[in-house]
User: Fold these one by one.
Assistant:
Number 1:
Amino acid sequence: MKEIVLALKGITKIYPGVKALDDVSLTFEKGEIHAIVGENGAGKSTLIKTITGAIAPTAGTIAFGGKEYQKLDPIEAIRVGIGAVYQEFNLIPYLSVAENIFFGRELRQGAFTDMKAMCAETEQILNELGVRIDPRARVKDLSVACQQIVEIAKSVSKEVKVLILDEPSAPLTNSETQSMFRIIKKLKAKGVTIIYISHRLEEIFELSDRVTVMRDSKKILTLDTGETDRKSLISHMVGRSLSDDYPRNESDCCETTLQARGLNTAYVNNITFDLRQGEILGFAGLVGAGRTEVARAIFGADAVTSGEILLFGKPVRIKSPADAIKNKMGLIPEDRKSHGVLLSLAIRNNITFSSLKHISRYGYLNKKKEDAVVHTLKENLRIKAPSVNQQVKNLSGGNQQKVVLAKWLATNCDILIFDEPTRGIDIGAKQEIYKLMRQLAESGKSIIMISSEMPELLGMSDRIIVMHEGRIVGELKKEEATQERILEMASGEAGGCGCNAN
Amino acid sequence: MRIRELFSKYGIYMVLLLMVVFFSVLSEAFLTPDNLFNILRQVAVVGTAAVGMTFVMLTGGIDLSVGSIIGVTGILTASLMVMGVPAVIAVLIALIAGVLMGLLNAFIINEFNVPPLIVTLGMMTTLRGIAYLVTGGMPVFGFPESFTILGQGYLGIIPIPVIIMGLAFLAGYILLDKFTIGRHIYGVGGNEEASRLSGVNVKKIKYFVYSVSGLLCGIAGVVLLSRTNSGQPKAGTSYEMDIITAVVLGGVSIKGGEGKITGVIAGVLIMGILSNGMIITNVGDYAQRIVQGLVLILAVAFDCYNQSRKASAGTLIRENKAAALNENS
């Protein structure tokens, strides 16, 4: 048995209405690379945050360095030697590498910072990691890969004992990932414990000593990586039984409403697919696979560099969301609060915000017409609020989502794009949203649904398109779709095209 | 809880009432019809421009060039009239010039993505420089007698500048409350990206509000010129302070998206009463400045404090969102 550096005991985190972590106990050994895997929303991020002290657990303890903590705070965590490199770097772009590494604890000579000493020490740390970066270079001039190394070096300089890496390979190319692996292995050799979060299973098999699977806010199990394989890991990740409470679509017609032909944007490549009337077309893929970007491209929110969009067989030019709305499309964005609702405005103003033309003449609002529209939609969608003049910020997530949906229904659109329609919504409201989506499809609307929740995706979609690194890698009919197949395709296994989209 | 809500909704009117009572007690000369109309006439120029500023600030922007636009349009009108251009035409040209200056502000904000604070700060200095350059620093005068009506005339017992301000507020209220563009202005201020994704042409809205601000400054500039009956290159200097203070006092959030134009009327009146009351009670000019500066800070502090209270109530939800975003980036 190796020395245990960090032990979590019964960590539970409860948010109002959501159990984000459920009785998680986990130990980390000195000098091991410990991978944590799980689907989106399995609780990995919350777990990391309790270790770094960003959030306080509702129950449970953290044992580290011979002490037991009810909770860590971020400063304490850094002091005792817990470091983390997040997907968003915490670097200051206009400062040099050395200044970033010593930020907040600059070496001094008298009253002045001692740039020479900081550069020398930085150089030594970077040498030990086996990389060459000029300590005096400005961080903003470095590549993403180098910035990441600076982040790691920053932790190393603070004599880190446990280093958490959250999806470190996501922004890197293959060769950059390999050099990052070398650095990680060097740190391991020095006795640093690495906690490695990644969606890419191949990396986990290449790098880690042990792997912990999380699902539904719980720890499922911890395995020695050598004693498991890809298939069984996926089955542990997926694990749950499929519920049958998704309304079904019996129809299998119909006319094609929207066609995307070879769409390219800065984020996605060669997107081609058809959307039929009355169907729900699911988009599956890992986070960062480009699903949201496809939605934004179709909706005119991101610039399309080439390719075309056809509506009912006719090419259309969509250069802005306003164009998309004119063509009877609607987008329910994943980030509801900053892209979906207008929090400071009343429910009424939100609902009619995109359809003011229908209720006005020469720009003059007909408030009676507006009242009628708003009240009908409020009733039909069962938006729970004492008054339509209430600010949307006072509503629950589910009701806010209904307001966004109401906004598009008021425009009388044909095509609706739902991006993570039930994220952050409680179970009851989820079911309502599902029913509404199915009703809309049956009433002849075409629906695109992007979702990271497998049961939802499998339950709701009539067809599923799977994406990986900005490309479509496959399409599955409802009957052929299983969680295992989707996950395999989404992680780039079955889809072919191993190339890196950079 | 209830009381807090009441206060944040009607607090401004209570402050207005308190100030009226306060100065009435301090000085008998305050609460007379003459003095009240006097106050209204004094705030007319600032009040008219405050309507445009309300539009701009509702979109989350700011216009520091208002004082200079007032000055330049005044000088322009004055110079044209001195050159023999009929007053009506001169005024029309000045108003168009005001709109163009607003459009130029919006053009730089929209097309080069420069923060409004910087654009209009630069424009403030530039336009003021033009006013001095054109006049050589000397006043321009010698207008037709009839021109003074705008600034000094009465309709019945109501001074014309007050009527102009009233019409500006009325038009502003109707546009913001009864027209689709009003909804879009609030939307852009509340959340620009969400508005764009809802089909709003955000740039168009910004062109609109800055040109409205320019137009109303043009009107204010002409009224001011008519009142003083001489084109001063320094006319309107530091008006942006009074105008912004009045709008913020009136409850328009400096972050945009929230606030009502009816509140701005109260804000303008408070500024006017404060200044008039201080003159009547013999508070010196220097002390007045201190008070005005403090009022601006207090008004903004109140707004920001309210915002942060609301924000902290939403923290838990936002934390969840942040977690979700992290997984997504």
Note: The domain at 4-238 of chain A is CATH 3.40.50.300 (Rossmann fold).
Number 2:
Amino acid sequence: MATETLDAPPTLGALYGRALLTARSGGDTLPDRTLELAGTTIDADAVADYAHVCGFRVGGDVPLTYPHMLAFPLQMRLMTDREFPLPAPGMVHLRNVISQRRALEVGEPLTLRVHAERLVSHPKGAQVDLVANVSTPDGEDTWHSRSTYFVRGAQADDAAEPAPPEPAPVVGDRPHAVWKVPGDIGRRYAAVSGDVNPIHINSLAAKAFGMPGTIAHGMWSKARVLAALSGRYGPASTVDAVFRAPLRTPSTALLYTAAAKDGWDAALRSSKGKDHLLLTIRPSS
Amino acid sequence: MASPRRAAVVGANRIPFARSNGAYARASNSDMLTAALDGLVARFGLADERVGEVVAGAVLKHSRDFNLTREAVLASRLSPWTPTYDVQQACGTGLEAAVLIANKIALGQVESGIAGGVDTTSDAPIAVNEDLREVLLAANRAKSTAGVVKALAGLRPGQIVPEIPANREPGTGMSMGEHTAITAAHWAISRTAQDELTALSHQNLAKAYDAGFFDDLMTPYLGLTKDNNLRADSSVEKLGKLKPVFFPAGADKAEATMTAGNSTPLTDGAATVLLASDEWAAERGLPVLAHVVDAETAAVDYVHGDEGLLMAPAYAVPRMLERNGLTLQDFDFYEIHEAFASTVLATLAAWESPQFCKERLGLDAPLGSIDRGKLNVHGSSLAAGHPFAATGARIVPTLAKILHENGGGRGLISICAAGGQGVVAILEA
């Protein structure tokens, strides 16, 4: 796979504009290249903004989900290419697995690499994996993420091999927290993540993409659940999350947690008991 | 474990407790704490006296009240040379303040001290919207006029909406009532049992007032001479007509048993208690009602640990009993704070449960049941109300006086607190 080196992080607003306005040719195959951005760093103020929106403590370890903020613009750059086989607007996040060897540090030079793989059919469309890696200049792989996105009605070949098993958290029947998910959480998370996908911000746009109204970013709910379990897991963890029914904003959500043998299980559900998010935390292997 | 010497409970003064947004709506924490202190000063002739320390606190506190107790002492008749400090342990504040003073007396570091607590839910601090706060703080940090203007450009009309404090646990988003509804359902505490305990609390408190029990424990304030939450004619029938107000999250509403009757109301009020060495009391010809024998605190993981928010005393008491070589039945009186009727009943049920005592407390046998005729004999928070930080300073002298009037004996105090904490203590006379 070829490597395309970037000098600076792509600007997300422009990418969304391009995605919405440019006629797509929509090729059949995924781009055969890896985007690379070297010498990037994590900014303390940006982490503080992110922590405020997601409920993390400011000044602790950089949240395990935070490097996604760095990788996401590169993912969008790949996905908004005219030739990318699936359209970026209205894409739905199905699953995200992040594995971290250690907590990243503010200011340390990092190299990001992002590529797409596993374009396969889904019972209702097609899905694709965007894979991101963070490494240090001396080649230490510290952070790895795989995001699976779904596009309704799109087409792709069936998978040659079965998908890895989904996380299956085991939790009790009493919620451990009741969250009032604010109506503006989509706007707030967009402001810190750059993910200005309109389904999170504008209810008309959300309805145009088949949503009941604005919905929370999946990566916000994942981060919020991790923040709720602060202090209960170590930095060298793998956090596997599947996103089920969209979490509408505003709404009330119930968090269920349980200690597992070697980690934590969690489920985020609607007040009617529908699963939004199923998540497991395990030590990184 | 014998302490060097035991601190004496000499006496107390509180103001009547008032339901929120009523009689004390215009009074601040500082006003009420000063009033309670001045009544104590008058009762025990402490005008211009320097006691060893005054330790008090409030749960809901304005940021300007960082030195609440010191300001109250300066405004009171006590000597302005009296040192103070504030403590805050949610609903355990008043008892913890008394324990801190008792410990200093036991060690000989002070000869006397006043513990207290105060809370108002009427004059509560209102915070600005979090977004507005961030904008204003950013403007404050800006070093140039242009920087200030740039920061203030972030102002939006929606940021005017203030934040009013709620008794919600930050970690769970659930109110204390909602948490307790889960505990009540877990222990299958019936509506009837809760209403019976509530009616008894009102009846017992009313009887104590009629008998003049509070005459030397209270001074009138803003037109009140007794707690205005008290319903002397309370009955299980009347309480039974109330609708549930707290529901266990994520469960069938049919499980709800907690009403505004069998839960404590939001309350305003202040309480103080005078502690001293026996020598200090004797020098002044003051009585010794009882001694502080021991105290213990505990905390539970109510966030992810599947324990009830208000169940920490169930853990603290057995630890304290073991240290003192006592059983749960070795007490003449029990004062278990009635945050909710179901809290008292769930705590008693836990101590009776072989499974809880084995799995959670690691005990071979359950602590067992208590003689309910010895429980909260002069009423408790369901009837009197519960100004969070003041409750401990209400209960300590109440129990001390009960023991004194009994001609001696041993009493247990158990107070649950927000944050999954609990403070418990033993008094003897």
Note: The two ends of chain B are 18 Å apart (CA to CA).
